[in-house]
Amino acid sequence: MAAHCVHKIWFYVIQAILLFEQGSVSSEEVRMRLVEEPINLGNQQWNAPAQPKSLFPTVQFSNFTGPPHLRRLVGRCFSLVENDYKYELCPFQNVTQHEQSLRWNPYSGILGIYEEWDIVNNTFQSMIFRDGDTCGQKNRQVKVQLKCGTKHELEHVGEPVTCEYAMVFRTPLVCHEHSLLVYPNLSEDQQAEWNELEGRLYREEVTQQGYKKMLHTIFESAGYVLNPKQRPLPAKQDHETHPDDFTSLDTCKDEYRKLNAEIETLKSQLESRQNDPAVGMSVNLDGDYDRDDIYDQD
User: Where is the DMAP1-binding domain (predicted)?
Assistant: First the structure.
């Protein structure tokens, strides 16, 4: 909707320019068919590639945690094209999706921001990415499972539940049988806490539910998982937002109403002065005009 509205706004800008040019050039009639609706390209193929779209996360990704040998993946990204979409995984940072269709507004979005590990049976099983783009009443999220491979490779992308994605990432960094164990990566104090907790469970001093809760607390202290009540920090907005940016449908509607009213004013001025050869207009490359020039040109 916002993109469609932008097209309508630019239509009125062009229409205003043409109206003034026609009013100031009386010796030649200009014939032009104006299209009020944007052309729907559908599935037509064009050679011109889609313009890249800037993506802005709403939260910061968590700091790197986990097996130290996986740190070498930080700052690298791996992609896979599947079912007309390009998926890009940047371990411990984010996951994005880019539609490969050449239609006029292909989708590009954030599927998730790195948040924590999914730990199963004392093993770092998957990286969890949450707080992606909105999808109905929830945000998109991704679970990336690590598997042994001969090279770093994003192997598979699925969507078992709507807006919840599952990926398989293969890497030689996890081929050793102990490469993803949690216990060896804990501090001595955290290992001691875990040992004591195992003893309490063995002596039936704690229930299974209590054991899992206390173990989760140890993982929290190590930074491997987040407290359920903890929220990621808001993303730092290092880009400047201008009031004329079409960042939302409401912004687009407001600008549309303003521009439409301005067009009507310009039409009235043109009709009242169309026989005056002194009426002119200066237009810069951005499509802006100087209102004073309408009356001040010699």
Answer: 182-288
Quick check: is 232 in a domain?
A: no
Q: From CA 62, how far away is CA 115, in angstroms rounded?
A: 5
CA distance 106 to 52: 10
The reply to whether 77 and 197 lie within a common domain is yes
**Pair of tokens at residue 131:** 């707080």
Cα 19 to the center of its chain, rounded Å: 39
> What is the CATH classification number for the domain harbouring 131?
2.70.130.10
Is residue 235 domain-resident? no
From 163, 189, 222, give the residue that closes a domain.
222
Look up residue 168 and give its two tokens: 């398989």
Looking at the structure, tell me whether residues 210 and 73 fall in a common domain.
Answer: yes
How many C-beta atoms surround the C-beta of residue 294 within 10 A? 20
b/e per residue 14-42 (b: at least 16 CB within 10 A):
ebbeebbeebbeeeeeeeeeeeeebeeee
For residues 203 and 1, give the distance between their C-alpha atoms in angstroms, rounded to a whole number: 62
Q: For the chain, which ranges sit under pLDDT 70?
A: 1-61, 230-254, 273-298
Structure pTM? 0.60
CA distance 247 to 170: 37
CA nearest 185: which of 124, 258, 106, 113?
124
Contact present, 85 and 102 (Cβ < 8 Å): no
Q: What is the DSSP letter of 183?
A: G
Helix axes 208-222, 188-202, angle to 10 degrees: 180
Per residue in 148-185, pLDDT tens? 999 999 999 999 999 999 999 999 999 999 999 999 99
**Contacts of 196 by beta carbon, 8 Å cutoff, 6+ apart:** none
